[in-house]
Amino acid sequence: xxxxxxxxxxxxxxxxxxxxEAMYQTGRWLYVAFMCHQVIEKTLKAYWCAxxxxxxxxxxxxxxxxxxxxxxxxxxxxxxxxxxxxxNFNIEARYPEDKEALAKTLTEHFCRQMIDxxxxxxxxxxxxx
Length: 129
Hints:
129 residues, mainly alpha, 6 helices, globular
């Protein structure tokens, strides 16, 4: 286990979670979604570094990360659905043509729920170590 890499990924995941909360407080829903995506991606990479002999791959695909480090098979259907949903916010939030359409789908309630689910999944992943 590369403990320095694990700590690195967890530290920036926690920073991104704080950023998601700050964006929520200011009503910047698109960035709440993007930061939640980042939290899960980086938490999965921390888990990968803790459990695999090679570094985490350069990918933003949550399912690929979860499958590659053996977490996907341990997840329940709700966790898999959330992983699928939140993965989309990375790609769609980065391209201008998708930002406006995506922003219209995000609400205060949806974003609060997303932050809460992000925290739950992050904690669940940490408990597996």
